[in-house]
Amino acid sequence: MEHYQELIAPNPRVAMIHASLDDDVADAAKWARAEKFPWPTVLLDEHEATGLDTLGGQEQVPDTVLVDKDGKVLTRDEEEAFAKIAALK
Amino acid sequence: MKFKNLLAAGVALSFGVGSLQARTWTNADGSKTFEADFKTYDKEGGKVTVLMGNGRSVTFAVAKLSEDDRKFLDEQAKNDPAAGGADVKDALKEQKIGAKLIKPGILKKLDGKRFAKFEMEKAPEYYLVYYSASW
What we know:
Distance between the termini of chain A: 20 Å
Number of strands of chain A: 4
Oligomer: heterodimer
Strand order of the largest sheet of chain B: 1-2-3-4
Number of helices of chain A: 4
Largest sheet of chain B: 4 strands, antiparallel
Order of helices and strands of chain A: HEHEHEEH
Structural class of chain A: alpha+beta
Strand order of the largest sheet of chain A: 1-2
Strand content of chain B: 25-35%
Number of strands of chain B: 7
Number of domains of chain B: 2
CATH topology of the largest domain in chain B: SH3 type barrels
Largest sheet of chain A: 2 strands, parallel
Number of domains of chain A: 1
Order of helices and strands of chain B: HEEEEHHHEEE
Shape of chain A: globular
Helix content of chain B: 25-40%
CATH superfamily of the largest domain in chain B: SLA1 homology domain 1
Strand content of chain A: 15-25%
Distance between the termini of chain B: 34 Å
Structural class of chain B: alpha+beta
Number of helices of chain B: 4
Radius of gyration of chain A: 13 Å
Largest interface: A-B, 56 and 42 residues
């Protein structure tokens, strides 16, 4: 959350998207409320339509994937992802 | 889908709504209601898609709904892009990722206790996708 507020929210070059892996929308909403997610969510039944099911981010939970606007995966390593984002000005 | 079938589905599924605060929809003659969350509205095609309590989406003709419901949908359509939103939308349409995220009803954000429709406020070059679940 701290990284998001510091590096992503104020930066127009990057956005954070939550890809929910909950089958049930009520569970997804409950989880988002509990964690106070400030970022938007894509529900599981929309992963195929958005291509989020092809980024390899479901191999472990939780997981993060940094992609560019063309869908190219830049890294699946969270630390490396935030380092790349921090370098964006 | 016939309205009475939708009503039946709404009643059957309302037991699974839990903490979601669904909108109550009424049919054109005011004789039947059901509860579901608004998802998308295709004004040109005259179709509305709602989200039932179990997360299942149902699409039906707007003509089946009451005047109040149709007014609600028109308001939703009017409120679409805020000032400057059109530029962001145009930029997102050029992206492989963004073009999919701006499809109606794809992005959600918490509004109180439930998810509400959300639109991107920027057209970023990069997306950090965070996969997680409650389990």
